[in-house]
Amino acid sequence: xxxxxETPISELVARGYDAVSRYLVREGPWLFFIxxxxxxxxTHLKDKSVRLHQDRRKPDDRISxxxxxxxxxxxxxxxxxxxxxxxxxxxxxxxxxxxxHDPS
Length: 104
What we know:
Blueprint (H helix, E strand, L loop, with lengths): L1 H13 L2 H11 L2 H17 L22 H4 L10 H7 L15
């Protein structure tokens, strides 16, 4: 995953806003969509090992003990992995992202 998703994202973001903007117009948001979902999954899985309370006198609950895992699940199938569904998440598919606001 690192070589296929995280490294390309890192290299792209390091090149700046204009490079990211050009990429999104040319390739669409799929790489970022997948990356954000990986962050979501990794964060919630990490919470299985992080104590809810730092105070060791309190119960040894983990942050994820209080999740309703079924509600975090998003059923990704071939049917909903298409550009029209993705427009719900990013309505600018095929269009340039908004220009940066220059406050000066």
